[in-house]
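Sat 14:20. Reprocessing the chain from the morning session after the first attempt stalled halfway. Input below, unchanged.
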Amino acid sequence: MFKYAGRTIGLLTFVIEFLCFSVAVAQTPSPTPTPIPEQQYQPRPIPLGVSGGALDALSKPPIYCVGGTLGALVQDENGKQYVTGCNHVLNVGPNDNLPIGSEIVQPGLIDTGCVQNTSYEIGTLSAVVPLALSSTAANKADAAMALVTPGDVSSSIFGIGQVSTTPATPVKNLTVQKVGRTTVYTTGTVALTGVQATIALETKVVPLGKPIPHVNIHFVDLLKITPGTFANLGDSGALVFTAGSCPQPIGVLTAVNMKNGVV
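Finished this time. Tokens:
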């Protein structure tokens, strides 16, 4: 579990620092006919690296919905726990699309056939790291977090177990791994550090076939992880960590480019 001995604003600062090596995605694919375990309902307390998202992450008729991956568990000095994820997953957009207090569910709507079920709630949206909506800004994180319903979320990664509470410094050629909603367990290599990229983030969930409103947002201090199969749409929010017997976190998945790898 990631502990931080600060106030709530201190926890937000920690999350910003923790995600400054972000990597990640936009819109998720349609539900698969036979969901894999990471896409299914998990007994409480849930492991992380599994499907999740906002209860209101859908458009009205014709229905279309989105989701992503629940990444890490953090705790403040008062013992309150939060699950981290991407802004564009938990908040369904780049900034204030949903009000604070909105329900966060597991699994995400993308894996429930777009059916909203309040009994799947594992927490409520509590904070969003603001994004500067510019193609030249220096954003370092696509991040948000949800206050966890006590007892509903564990600090264990699906199929992996516990990871270290001490982040590692990402360097070129470092071997990394992750567990995500779509591509589940994968390994990769840090190809570049200090990457800058402009990522198109959706600003609203719209029905299939409709133009997708988006804004181009510039990020700095990213990582490029290869191969391109390391992640895919729907893995946004997954914790990326080192290989070995004591995995250490290095960042959170944010966007994918199947030709050139993950950034």
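The chain has one domain: 1-263.
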